[in-house]
C-alpha cells in the first residue's frame, strides 16, 4: 500500500523533497467537493503512483465526513476508507495522499490534524476562503510541494 524507495528502503511518500503532482481535473474535482461540503469539512483520498521522489495522483475518492462536529473537524469513515484503499489496489494504484478542508482557514494543520494523522502519506488541506491548497507530512508538519499538471502529464 505504501511505496518504498529501492535505494533507501524508506517510504517515498514521507521522504524530504517529495513532490506531489495533482492533475488539473483532480484539482477541480477536489475544489468542487470542498465547495459542495461547505460549511462542513470535506475529506477524501488520492490514489496514484510513485516514481522516484515524484508522486502522481491519478484518482480522487471523496469520503463522507463522520466527525461528531463536521464543521470543525473531519473523520473519514474507517470502513469507507478501507473500501477505497481496496479499490485503489484493484486499479493498480497506491494511497498517495489524504485531503480535507478547513472551511474557515487556514490551509495549515491543526492540533487535531497532527494528533489524528495515521497514514504515512501527505495530507492536503484546502482553505476555500483563500483558495489555497497545501500539503504536509503529519504529524511533523513538513510542507510538501503540490504541483498542478494538465491531463497530458
Summarize the topology.
Elements: E1 19-23, H1 24-37, E2 43-51, E3 54-63, H2 78-90, E4 94-101, H3 111-116, E5 122-127, E6 132-137, E7 142-149
Parallel strand pairs: 1-3, 1-7, 4-5
Antiparallel strand pairs: 2-3, 2-4, 5-6, 6-7
Summary?
The protein is of the alpha/beta class. It is built from three helices and seven strands; from the N terminus they run E-H-E-E-H-E-H-E-E-E.
Structure description:
- This protein is α/β, with parallel strands linked by helices.
- Helices cover 22% and strands 34% of the residues.
- It has three helices and seven strands.
- A seven-stranded mixed β-barrel has the order 1-3-2-4-5-6-7.
- Helix 3 links the parallel strand 4 (94-101) and strand 5 (122-127).
- The protein is globular, with a radius of gyration of 14 Å.
- The relative contact order is 0.22.
- Mean pLDDT is 89; it is low at 4-10.
Order of H and E elements: EHEEHEHEEE
Provide the gyration radius in Å: 14 Å
Instruction: Indicate the structural class.
Output: alpha/beta
Share of helical residues = 10-25%
Q: Per the principal axes of the C-alpha atoms, what is the gross shape?
A: globular
Question: Biggest sheet, in brief?
Answer: 7 strands, mixed, barrel
Output the number of helix runs.
Answer: 3
Assembly status: single chain
The termini sit apart by 23 Å
The stretches of 5 or more residues where confidence is low (pLDDT under 50) are 4-10
Fraction in beta strands: 25-35%
Number of strands: 7
Q: Strand order within the widest sheet? A: 1-3-2-4-5-6-7
Give the integer mean of the pLDDT values.
89
Amino acid at each position: 500500500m505504501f511505496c518504498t524507495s529501492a535505494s533507501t528502503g524508506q517510504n517515498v511518500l514521507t521522504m524530504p523533497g517529495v513532490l506531489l503532482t495533482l492533475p488539473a481535473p483532480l484539482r477541480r474535482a477536489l475544489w468542487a467537493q470542498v465547495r459542495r461540503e461547505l460549511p462542513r469539512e470535506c475529506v477524501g483520498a488520492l490514489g496514484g503512483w510513485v516514481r522516484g521522489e515524484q508522486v502522481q495522483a491519478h484518482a480522487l475518492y471523496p469520503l463522507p465526513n463522520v466527525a461528531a462536529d463536521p464543521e470543525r473537524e473531519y473523520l473519514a469513515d474507517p470502513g469507507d476508507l478501507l473500501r477505497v484503499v481496496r479499490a485503489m489496489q484493484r486499479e493498480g494504484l497506491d494511497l498517495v495522499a489524504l485531503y480535507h478542508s478547513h472551511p474557515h482557514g487556514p490551509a495549515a494543520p491543526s492540533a487535531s490534524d497532527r494528533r489524528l494523522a495515521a497514514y504515512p502519506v501527505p495530507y492536503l488541506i484546502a482553505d476555500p476562503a483563500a483558495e489555497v491548497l497545501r500539503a504536509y507530512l503529519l504529524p511533523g508538519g513538513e510542507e510538501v510541494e503540490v504541483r498542478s499538471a494538465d491531463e497530458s502529464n
